[in-house]
From TrEMBL:
Pfam families: Rce1-like. It comes from Anaerocolumna sedimenticola. The keyword Nucleus does not apply. The keyword Protease applies. InterPro entries: Rce1/LyrA-like_dom (IPR003675). Residues 117-219 form the CAAX prenyl protease 2/Lysostaphin resistance protein A-like domain. The chain crosses the membrane at residues 12-31, 51-69, 81-97, 109-133, 154-175, 181-202, 207-223, 243-260. GO terms for molecular function: endopeptidase activity; metallopeptidase activity. GO terms for biological process: CAAX-box protein maturation; proteolysis. Keywords: Hydrolase, Membrane, Metalloprotease, Protease, Transmembrane, Transmembrane helix. This is CPBP family intramembrane metalloprotease.
Amino acid sequence: MKRNVRKTMKSLSQNHCIIFSAVVIVIALILDPLFVQIFSLLEPGEYLPKIMGQIIPGILILLTIRCILPKQKIGFARKGLLVGIGLGWIFIIYSVINLDISFISQHGIIMPPLATTAGFVIYSISIGFYEEIMMRALILNNFILNWGHTKKGIYKSAILSSGLFGIAHLVNLFYTPDLKIAIMAQIVYATTIGLFFASIYLRSKNIWAVIFLHALFDFAASFKEVFSTAVNEITDITVGNAFAFNLLLLPLAFIGLFLLRKVEPVNIKDEINKPNYRR
């Protein structure tokens, strides 16, 4: 039975890779809050349930990769890490801007308990781990396996996987239905960032690089909620602010497309079937 399940998953991932990707995303989005609720019953603190809601689905996705892409390189080695971070230098600048220093300076900075600080940092990393393992290590790699033998296929893989990454943020409407404009904006800029991350991953062949960049951005985005004395009011943004924020991030899409120019098409199937192939 196990062999039949694996065969079915592999067939679906190869013959209907977009449907397969959508199914993976939906299942992951269900598992995330499920594990959060399960671990919340233990009353372990604010961040542990959230962390487990990211880590456990991420591990399950890694097992899925081993099942359908057993010889596919994921990029857990150190090789390419500095290359990836170097290519993403502009994103580090965006992350610093995202800290919103002016807001924090107006309202003051607090130092929360060490456990809260550690939990926040680990949670930011766990988001990067979970989302990059799913979107780049599994979905993008699977698209490349199917279409990456041509330049057009490489662009198609990067753009489609990024689009799915953006659309996945629609789930936030279930949790914060009053933030419709903010979530629509998030879908657009997540697609833009996803394309940039896809190019970084394909150029560096290192998953840690995009996990780091992703975690840094999420850390910066939520920094003022943890380290600022301001009361966190959840209100929607204006259409103008949504447009301005996406316009600010738009260069990342063009940089991503530019970086993809140096990603060479390869015969993926022949490559991963080499006798001495290693992860």
